Amino acid sequence: MQMRINIPPLTRILLVLLVAISITHQATRYLFHTLPAELLALVPQQSLFYPWVYLTATFAEQNVVTLLIAGATILYGGKYLERAWGSREFAKFVLIVTVLPNVASTFIYVLWFAITRDAARAVAYIQGSVALQGAFLVAFKQLVPEHTVTILRGIVKIRVKHFPAVFLAANTISGFVIGTDTALVLAWAGFFTSWTYLRFYKRQPDLSGTNTGGSEIKGDASETFAFAYFWPDVVQPQIAAVADVVYDVLVSVRILTPFSAEDVQTSNVQASARGEGGLPSLLNQGGRRGGKREEAERRRALALKALDQRLNAATASKQAPTASPSTSIQESTVASKEQASDSAQA
Length: 346
Description:
By secondary structure, the chain is mainly alpha-helical. The chain has helices spanning 9-30, 53-56, 64-85, 87-116, 119-122, 130-143, 163-177, 181-200, 236-252, 261-277, 291-345, and strands at 148-151, 156-159, 203-205, 216-218. Strands 1-2 form a two-stranded antiparallel sheet. It has a two-stranded antiparallel ribbon with strand order 3-4. Helix 3 (64-85) crosses helix 4, helix 4 (87-116) crosses helix 8 and helix 6 (130-143) runs antiparallel to helix 7 (163-177). The longest helix is centred in the last third of the chain and has 55 residues, at 291-345. It is globular and about 80 Å long. The chain starts with 8 loop residues before the first helix and ends with a helix.
């Protein structure tokens, strides 16, 4: 019996790229000294001469441990997101959250060097899948925020919506304490890039049935995906106040398009529909109830629900105006009878 590899095509390609680029990078760095290591890893001072590194640096891991972490991230996260979004949208997402964080990190390190004159900043190696990991966690927060992940046989339980904050906190602390500043910068760059794209730009099918602008909606204006909701409840009001000011400024200079009330309502229903419909398990996507079948059933159920809501709304709108003529007919009949009675009495 032929063994079936239950990995979507793009996820498979990303895993091959990860292994091939990481091995090649280590070979050029430690074995073949005649080849520059900047061929695959991003060095701010040399990046303009090797522009492809803005993509390859994400897949150039430094050691076996980070390689295994990156492999697990792409395997499980890629399987989930590619099946939820489709290969084309997933490819676009991966391209954005790998290239833009590397570009932003290069700018930060060049600026760091210009301010401090520390030559180590200009020749620092910016590489690894940290930005991709942060981006995946933001996507999970959008799709399955209430999903609970159990670690160490139930000793540790954490909801997916808390993962981005924990991830950023861990990388921020390690950056200041251990000196892993590149991971700190990449983590925040990946987080902001992913959230900005998913919040304001990514197009997705309308599963709510409430959008009058077409079958697709742009971005995710839901309240639960707002920037403040990524952080603990205690600091959410303060973060929301600052985020609102930044949002208003970006809207005023026309960098962002403001959300309408319908956008917010549609996105809230969309988020609720994702929660009610359920999505394939993060780790159990194979077998007879694979991800594609579950996703198709979920979409079918949501489509039927949306159709039922529209039919009910249409029925209610038709019944409302028909009640008025019947009422007026009854009133005119009563009035005619009263007039005939008055005439007979006269």
